[in-house]
Amino acid sequence: MSAREWIGKDFYRELGVSSDASQEEIKKAYRKLARENHPDANPGNTEAEQKFKAVSEAYGVLSDPEKRKEYDEARRLFGTGGAGGFGFPGGGGTGGAGGFDLGDIFGQGAASGGFGGLGDMLGNLFGRRGGGGATAARGQRGADVETDVRIGFAEAVKGATLPLRLSSPATCGTCGGNGARPGTQPRVCPTCAGVGLVNRSQGAFSFSEPCQDCRGRGSIIDDPCPECLGEGVSTRTRTLTVRIPAGVDDGQRIRLAGQGEPGRGGATAGDLYVRVHVNPDPVFGRSGNDLTITVPVEFSELALGTTITVPTLESKVSLRVPAGTANGRVLRVRGKGIVKRDGTQGDLLVTLQVAIPAKLDGKAKAALEKYADTVAKHDPRPEITALLRDRGA
Protein backbone atom coordinates (compact mmCIF):
# COMPACT_ATOMS: atom_id res chain seq x y z
CA MET A 1 0.00 0.00 0.00
CA SER A 2 1.39 3.39 -1.00
CA ALA A 3 1.86 6.31 1.37
CA ARG A 4 -0.91 8.17 -0.44
CA GLU A 5 -3.37 5.34 0.13
CA TRP A 6 -2.47 4.94 3.80
CA ILE A 7 -2.72 8.59 4.78
CA GLY A 8 -5.97 8.80 2.83
CA LYS A 9 -7.49 6.40 5.37
CA ASP A 10 -8.97 7.77 8.58
CA PHE A 11 -8.03 5.20 11.19
CA TYR A 12 -9.69 7.21 13.95
CA ARG A 13 -12.98 7.12 12.07
CA GLU A 14 -12.63 3.36 11.52
CA LEU A 15 -12.49 2.87 15.30
CA GLY A 16 -15.08 5.56 16.02
CA VAL A 17 -12.79 7.62 18.29
CA SER A 18 -11.48 11.16 18.22
CA SER A 19 -7.93 12.01 17.17
CA ASP A 20 -7.05 12.86 20.78
CA ALA A 21 -8.41 9.58 22.18
CA SER A 22 -6.34 7.88 24.86
CA GLN A 23 -4.70 4.51 24.28
CA GLU A 24 -7.29 2.94 26.60
CA GLU A 25 -10.16 4.45 24.58
CA ILE A 26 -8.61 3.18 21.34
CA LYS A 27 -8.15 -0.28 22.81
CA LYS A 28 -11.73 -0.37 24.14
CA ALA A 29 -13.16 0.73 20.78
CA TYR A 30 -11.10 -1.87 18.90
CA ARG A 31 -12.12 -4.72 21.18
CA LYS A 32 -15.81 -3.82 20.82
CA LEU A 33 -15.67 -3.62 17.02
CA ALA A 34 -13.50 -6.71 16.70
CA ARG A 35 -16.00 -8.76 18.73
CA GLU A 36 -18.96 -7.44 16.75
CA ASN A 37 -17.36 -8.12 13.35
CA HIS A 38 -15.31 -11.23 14.13
CA PRO A 39 -15.66 -13.88 11.37
CA ASP A 40 -16.66 -16.49 13.95
CA ALA A 41 -19.62 -14.33 14.99
CA ASN A 42 -20.56 -13.48 11.39
CA PRO A 43 -20.03 -16.61 9.25
CA GLY A 44 -20.35 -15.81 5.56
CA ASN A 45 -20.75 -12.07 6.16
CA THR A 46 -18.26 -10.45 3.77
CA GLU A 47 -19.04 -6.93 4.99
CA ALA A 48 -18.29 -7.87 8.61
CA GLU A 49 -15.07 -9.58 7.54
CA GLN A 50 -13.90 -6.46 5.70
CA LYS A 51 -14.79 -4.32 8.72
CA PHE A 52 -12.84 -6.72 10.94
CA LYS A 53 -9.78 -6.32 8.71
CA ALA A 54 -10.19 -2.52 8.62
CA VAL A 55 -10.38 -2.09 12.40
CA SER A 56 -7.44 -4.49 12.85
CA GLU A 57 -5.37 -2.40 10.43
CA ALA A 58 -6.38 0.81 12.20
CA TYR A 59 -5.56 -0.63 15.62
CA GLY A 60 -2.21 -1.87 14.34
CA VAL A 61 -1.19 1.75 13.70
CA LEU A 62 -2.95 3.62 16.52
CA SER A 63 -1.99 1.13 19.26
CA ASP A 64 1.71 1.67 18.53
CA PRO A 65 2.73 5.06 20.01
CA GLU A 66 5.55 5.54 17.48
CA LYS A 67 3.41 4.64 14.46
CA ARG A 68 0.57 6.78 15.75
CA LYS A 69 2.90 9.75 16.18
CA GLU A 70 4.14 9.41 12.59
CA TYR A 71 0.61 8.94 11.27
CA ASP A 72 -0.65 12.04 13.13
CA GLU A 73 2.30 14.09 11.90
CA ALA A 74 1.69 13.01 8.31
CA ARG A 75 -2.00 13.93 8.58
CA ARG A 76 -1.07 17.29 10.05
CA LEU A 77 1.42 18.02 7.29
CA PHE A 78 -0.62 16.75 4.35
CA GLY A 79 -4.18 17.16 5.52
CA THR A 80 -6.74 14.39 5.87
CA GLY A 81 -8.35 14.51 2.46
CA GLY A 82 -8.68 11.66 -0.01
CA ALA A 83 -5.84 10.12 -1.89
CA GLY A 84 -5.51 12.98 -4.36
CA GLY A 85 -4.85 16.46 -3.00
CA PHE A 86 -4.06 16.22 0.72
CA GLY A 87 -4.38 19.94 1.14
CA PHE A 88 -1.56 21.00 -1.15
CA PRO A 89 -2.00 24.17 -3.21
CA GLY A 90 -3.52 23.13 -6.49
CA GLY A 91 -3.09 19.52 -5.46
CA GLY A 92 -6.01 17.95 -7.17
CA GLY A 93 -4.29 15.15 -9.07
CA THR A 94 -1.17 13.15 -9.46
CA GLY A 95 1.28 15.88 -10.24
CA GLY A 96 1.89 18.34 -13.06
CA ALA A 97 2.75 21.98 -12.91
CA GLY A 98 -0.30 22.93 -10.88
CA GLY A 99 0.82 21.51 -7.55
CA PHE A 100 2.56 18.77 -5.59
CA ASP A 101 1.78 15.10 -5.59
CA LEU A 102 2.02 13.51 -2.14
CA GLY A 103 4.16 10.77 -3.60
CA ASP A 104 6.68 13.37 -4.79
CA ILE A 105 8.00 14.14 -1.34
CA PHE A 106 8.19 10.69 0.24
CA GLY A 107 11.33 9.59 -1.52
CA GLN A 108 14.85 10.90 -1.75
CA GLY A 109 15.72 14.50 -1.00
CA ALA A 110 16.13 17.27 -3.52
CA ALA A 111 19.48 18.48 -4.70
CA SER A 112 19.95 20.76 -1.71
CA GLY A 113 18.60 18.49 1.01
CA GLY A 114 14.95 19.14 0.28
CA PHE A 115 12.61 16.57 1.76
CA GLY A 116 15.06 13.85 2.69
CA GLY A 117 14.41 14.20 6.42
CA LEU A 118 10.67 13.98 5.83
CA GLY A 119 11.11 10.75 3.94
CA ASP A 120 13.11 9.34 6.84
CA MET A 121 10.42 10.35 9.32
CA LEU A 122 7.70 8.57 7.34
CA GLY A 123 9.81 5.57 6.38
CA ASN A 124 8.66 3.31 9.18
CA LEU A 125 5.01 4.11 8.66
CA PHE A 126 4.90 3.71 4.89
CA GLY A 127 7.13 0.69 4.58
CA ARG A 128 10.39 2.09 3.15
CA ARG A 129 13.28 4.32 4.10
CA GLY A 130 13.99 7.80 2.88
CA GLY A 131 17.39 8.97 1.75
CA GLY A 132 19.26 9.35 -1.50
CA GLY A 133 19.20 6.93 -4.38
CA ALA A 134 16.61 4.39 -5.36
CA THR A 135 15.87 2.42 -2.18
CA ALA A 136 14.18 -0.94 -2.16
CA ALA A 137 10.60 -1.14 -0.96
CA ARG A 138 10.27 -2.47 2.57
CA GLY A 139 7.45 -4.67 3.84
CA GLN A 140 4.89 -3.72 6.42
CA ARG A 141 4.86 -5.40 9.83
CA GLY A 142 1.69 -7.34 10.54
CA ALA A 143 -0.92 -5.84 12.85
CA ASP A 144 -1.22 -7.03 16.43
CA VAL A 145 -4.26 -9.13 17.33
CA GLU A 146 -6.05 -9.33 20.67
CA THR A 147 -8.33 -12.07 21.96
CA ASP A 148 -9.86 -13.09 25.29
CA VAL A 149 -9.85 -16.28 27.35
CA ARG A 150 -11.68 -17.11 30.57
CA ILE A 151 -10.16 -19.44 33.16
CA GLY A 152 -10.97 -20.71 36.63
CA PHE A 153 -9.54 -19.24 39.82
CA ALA A 154 -7.38 -22.32 40.52
CA GLU A 155 -5.98 -22.21 36.97
CA ALA A 156 -5.00 -18.58 37.46
CA VAL A 157 -3.21 -19.40 40.70
CA LYS A 158 -1.42 -22.55 39.53
CA GLY A 159 -1.02 -21.77 35.81
CA ALA A 160 -2.49 -23.68 32.89
CA THR A 161 -1.94 -24.61 29.26
CA LEU A 162 -4.96 -23.98 27.06
CA PRO A 163 -5.83 -24.55 23.40
CA LEU A 164 -6.86 -21.33 21.73
CA ARG A 165 -9.02 -21.37 18.59
CA LEU A 166 -8.53 -18.15 16.68
CA SER A 167 -9.99 -16.79 13.46
CA SER A 168 -7.83 -13.98 12.13
CA PRO A 169 -5.90 -12.84 9.05
CA ALA A 170 -2.98 -15.20 8.46
CA THR A 171 -0.57 -16.15 5.71
CA CYS A 172 -2.61 -17.59 2.87
CA GLY A 173 -2.37 -21.36 2.94
CA THR A 174 -3.00 -21.69 -0.78
CA CYS A 175 -0.22 -19.48 -2.14
CA GLY A 176 2.08 -19.46 0.89
CA GLY A 177 1.82 -15.68 1.10
CA ASN A 178 3.20 -14.69 -2.31
CA GLY A 179 -0.26 -13.83 -3.68
CA ALA A 180 0.11 -15.87 -6.89
CA ARG A 181 -1.99 -18.83 -7.96
CA PRO A 182 -0.27 -22.14 -7.07
CA GLY A 183 2.06 -23.17 -9.86
CA THR A 184 2.82 -19.57 -10.81
CA GLN A 185 5.13 -16.93 -9.36
CA PRO A 186 5.02 -13.12 -9.16
CA ARG A 187 7.29 -11.49 -11.72
CA VAL A 188 9.66 -8.59 -11.18
CA CYS A 189 8.01 -5.30 -12.08
CA PRO A 190 9.61 -4.09 -15.32
CA THR A 191 8.83 -0.45 -14.52
CA CYS A 192 10.78 -0.22 -11.25
CA ALA A 193 12.99 -3.30 -11.72
CA GLY A 194 11.73 -4.72 -8.43
CA VAL A 195 12.66 -1.66 -6.35
CA GLY A 196 9.08 -0.54 -5.77
CA LEU A 197 9.98 3.11 -6.45
CA VAL A 198 10.31 5.18 -9.58
CA ASN A 199 12.16 8.46 -10.06
CA ARG A 200 10.74 11.42 -11.89
CA SER A 201 11.78 15.00 -12.33
CA GLN A 202 9.81 18.16 -11.68
CA GLY A 203 11.70 21.24 -12.70
CA ALA A 204 15.02 21.36 -10.91
CA PHE A 205 14.06 18.59 -8.51
CA SER A 206 14.10 14.82 -8.75
CA PHE A 207 11.73 12.77 -6.63
CA SER A 208 10.97 9.15 -5.91
CA GLU A 209 7.46 7.80 -5.54
CA PRO A 210 5.86 4.38 -5.23
CA CYS A 211 5.65 2.59 -8.56
CA GLN A 212 2.10 2.82 -9.89
CA ASP A 213 2.32 -0.44 -11.84
CA CYS A 214 3.19 -2.66 -8.88
CA ARG A 215 1.82 -0.36 -6.12
CA GLY A 216 5.24 -0.22 -4.51
CA ARG A 217 5.58 -3.99 -4.10
CA GLY A 218 8.33 -4.48 -6.65
CA SER A 219 6.53 -7.42 -8.24
CA ILE A 220 3.45 -7.99 -10.37
CA ILE A 221 1.03 -10.87 -9.97
CA ASP A 222 -0.45 -11.84 -13.32
CA ASP A 223 -2.54 -14.73 -11.98
CA PRO A 224 -3.72 -13.92 -8.42
CA CYS A 225 -4.37 -16.62 -5.86
CA PRO A 226 -8.09 -17.48 -5.83
CA GLU A 227 -8.19 -17.60 -2.04
CA CYS A 228 -6.54 -14.29 -1.09
CA LEU A 229 -6.97 -12.48 -4.43
CA GLY A 230 -3.28 -11.62 -4.55
CA GLU A 231 -2.98 -10.17 -1.05
CA GLY A 232 -1.07 -13.13 0.37
CA VAL A 233 -3.27 -12.99 3.48
CA SER A 234 -6.58 -14.71 4.19
CA THR A 235 -8.80 -15.19 7.20
CA ARG A 236 -8.53 -18.67 8.60
CA THR A 237 -9.15 -20.54 11.81
CA ARG A 238 -6.13 -21.93 13.62
CA THR A 239 -5.52 -23.56 16.98
CA LEU A 240 -2.70 -22.35 19.19
CA THR A 241 -1.50 -23.46 22.58
CA VAL A 242 -1.15 -20.67 25.12
CA ARG A 243 0.58 -21.12 28.46
CA ILE A 244 -1.04 -19.17 31.29
CA PRO A 245 1.65 -18.43 33.91
CA ALA A 246 0.98 -19.13 37.56
CA GLY A 247 -0.32 -16.11 39.44
CA VAL A 248 -1.84 -14.34 36.42
CA ASP A 249 -4.11 -11.43 37.34
CA ASP A 250 -7.62 -10.84 36.07
CA GLY A 251 -7.38 -8.60 33.00
CA GLN A 252 -3.68 -9.28 32.43
CA ARG A 253 -2.47 -9.61 28.82
CA ILE A 254 -0.11 -12.36 27.66
CA ARG A 255 1.97 -11.66 24.55
CA LEU A 256 2.63 -14.34 21.95
CA ALA A 257 5.29 -12.88 19.70
CA GLY A 258 4.81 -13.35 15.97
CA GLN A 259 1.33 -14.88 16.28
CA GLY A 260 -0.59 -11.83 15.06
CA GLU A 261 -1.37 -10.89 11.49
CA PRO A 262 1.32 -11.83 8.98
CA GLY A 263 3.58 -9.10 7.63
CA ARG A 264 3.51 -8.01 4.02
CA GLY A 265 6.44 -7.97 1.68
CA GLY A 266 8.51 -10.27 3.87
CA ALA A 267 8.09 -8.18 7.03
CA THR A 268 7.63 -9.78 10.45
CA ALA A 269 4.25 -10.81 11.76
CA GLY A 270 2.49 -8.87 14.48
CA ASP A 271 1.95 -10.19 17.99
CA LEU A 272 -1.04 -11.88 19.58
CA TYR A 273 -2.20 -10.52 22.93
CA VAL A 274 -4.34 -12.83 25.04
CA ARG A 275 -6.35 -11.02 27.71
CA VAL A 276 -7.12 -13.31 30.65
CA HIS A 277 -10.40 -13.14 32.57
CA VAL A 278 -10.49 -15.05 35.88
CA ASN A 279 -13.73 -16.48 37.27
CA PRO A 280 -14.21 -15.70 40.98
CA ASP A 281 -13.94 -18.56 43.48
CA PRO A 282 -16.81 -19.20 45.95
CA VAL A 283 -14.38 -19.70 48.84
CA PHE A 284 -11.08 -17.97 48.14
CA GLY A 285 -10.25 -14.40 47.26
CA ARG A 286 -7.01 -12.75 46.30
CA SER A 287 -4.96 -9.79 47.48
CA GLY A 288 -1.83 -9.45 45.38
CA ASN A 289 0.01 -12.76 45.86
CA ASP A 290 -1.89 -13.61 49.05
CA LEU A 291 -4.95 -15.84 49.10
CA THR A 292 -7.80 -14.76 51.36
CA ILE A 293 -10.56 -16.73 53.05
CA THR A 294 -13.26 -15.86 55.60
CA VAL A 295 -13.98 -18.59 58.17
CA PRO A 296 -17.14 -18.48 60.34
CA VAL A 297 -16.53 -19.26 64.03
CA GLU A 298 -18.55 -19.44 67.22
CA PHE A 299 -18.25 -16.70 69.84
CA SER A 300 -17.12 -19.33 72.34
CA GLU A 301 -14.27 -20.37 70.05
CA LEU A 302 -12.90 -16.82 70.02
CA ALA A 303 -13.43 -16.32 73.74
CA LEU A 304 -12.00 -19.66 74.92
CA GLY A 305 -9.57 -20.35 72.08
CA THR A 306 -9.61 -23.35 69.79
CA THR A 307 -7.95 -25.04 66.81
CA ILE A 308 -9.75 -24.90 63.47
CA THR A 309 -9.12 -26.66 60.16
CA VAL A 310 -8.82 -24.34 57.16
CA PRO A 311 -8.73 -25.40 53.49
CA THR A 312 -5.94 -24.34 51.15
CA LEU A 313 -6.04 -24.61 47.37
CA GLU A 314 -4.42 -28.04 47.48
CA SER A 315 -5.07 -29.49 50.95
CA LYS A 316 -5.81 -28.20 54.45
CA VAL A 317 -4.02 -26.76 57.48
CA SER A 318 -4.73 -26.62 61.23
CA LEU A 319 -4.82 -23.14 62.70
CA ARG A 320 -4.67 -22.23 66.40
CA VAL A 321 -7.02 -19.48 67.53
CA PRO A 322 -5.79 -17.89 70.79
CA ALA A 323 -8.27 -17.28 73.62
CA GLY A 324 -9.68 -13.77 73.55
CA THR A 325 -9.29 -13.34 69.78
CA ALA A 326 -11.32 -10.42 68.45
CA ASN A 327 -13.98 -10.86 65.80
CA GLY A 328 -12.59 -9.94 62.34
CA ARG A 329 -8.99 -10.71 63.23
CA VAL A 330 -6.83 -11.89 60.32
CA LEU A 331 -4.49 -14.82 60.92
CA ARG A 332 -1.65 -15.49 58.49
CA VAL A 333 -0.59 -18.93 57.26
CA ARG A 334 2.77 -18.41 55.59
CA GLY A 335 3.68 -19.98 52.27
CA LYS A 336 0.14 -21.06 51.34
CA GLY A 337 -0.58 -18.30 48.85
CA ILE A 338 0.25 -17.72 45.18
CA VAL A 339 3.65 -18.59 43.74
CA LYS A 340 5.62 -15.50 42.75
CA ARG A 341 7.86 -15.32 39.69
CA ASP A 342 10.99 -15.55 41.81
CA GLY A 343 9.80 -18.86 43.27
CA THR A 344 8.59 -17.54 46.62
CA GLN A 345 4.98 -17.78 47.71
CA GLY A 346 2.41 -15.43 49.15
CA ASP A 347 0.45 -16.29 52.29
CA LEU A 348 -3.05 -17.45 53.17
CA LEU A 349 -4.92 -14.74 55.09
CA VAL A 350 -7.72 -16.14 57.29
CA THR A 351 -10.38 -13.72 58.53
CA LEU A 352 -12.33 -14.97 61.58
CA GLN A 353 -15.98 -13.95 61.57
CA VAL A 354 -18.46 -14.76 64.33
CA ALA A 355 -21.53 -16.63 63.07
CA ILE A 356 -24.71 -15.44 64.84
CA PRO A 357 -27.43 -18.13 64.94
CA ALA A 358 -30.81 -16.99 63.63
CA LYS A 359 -32.61 -19.05 66.31
CA LEU A 360 -31.66 -20.60 69.66
CA ASP A 361 -33.21 -23.69 71.22
CA GLY A 362 -34.30 -23.59 74.83
CA LYS A 363 -31.10 -25.04 76.28
CA ALA A 364 -28.83 -22.75 74.32
CA LYS A 365 -30.96 -19.73 75.15
CA ALA A 366 -30.91 -20.51 78.87
CA ALA A 367 -27.14 -20.94 78.84
CA LEU A 368 -26.68 -17.66 77.00
CA GLU A 369 -28.97 -15.81 79.44
CA LYS A 370 -26.98 -17.22 82.33
CA TYR A 371 -23.78 -16.02 80.71
CA ALA A 372 -25.33 -12.57 80.20
CA ASP A 373 -26.22 -12.38 83.93
CA THR A 374 -22.68 -13.40 84.82
CA VAL A 375 -21.04 -10.64 82.79
CA ALA A 376 -23.72 -8.01 83.46
CA LYS A 377 -21.32 -5.84 85.45
CA HIS A 378 -18.76 -5.89 82.65
CA ASP A 379 -19.05 -2.93 80.31
CA PRO A 380 -17.78 -3.82 76.82
CA ARG A 381 -18.00 -0.17 75.64
CA PRO A 382 -16.62 2.07 78.44
CA GLU A 383 -15.69 4.97 76.13
CA ILE A 384 -19.21 5.25 74.75
CA THR A 385 -20.73 4.90 78.24
CA ALA A 386 -18.50 7.74 79.50
CA LEU A 387 -19.51 9.99 76.58
CA LEU A 388 -23.20 9.34 77.19
CA ARG A 389 -22.71 10.10 80.90
CA ASP A 390 -21.08 13.42 80.05
CA ARG A 391 -24.06 14.31 77.88
CA GLY A 392 -26.49 13.50 80.66
CA ALA A 393 -27.92 10.41 79.03
From TrEMBL:
Protein name as catalogued: Chaperone protein DnaJ
Superkingdom: Bacteria
Gene: dnaJ
GO terms for cellular component: cytoplasm
Family that this chain belongs to: Belongs to the DnaJ family.
Native species: Prauserella muralis
Primary localization class, coarse: cytoplasm
Cell compartment(s), UniProt: Cytoplasm
Binding site for Zn(2+) 1: C172, C175, C225, C228
Swiss-Prot/TrEMBL CXXCXGXG motif repeat ranges: 172-179, 189-196, 211-218, 225-232
SUPFAM superfamilies, per database record: Chaperone J-domain, DnaJ/Hsp40 cysteine-rich domain, HSP40/DnaJ peptide-binding domain
UniProt subunit comment: Homodimer.
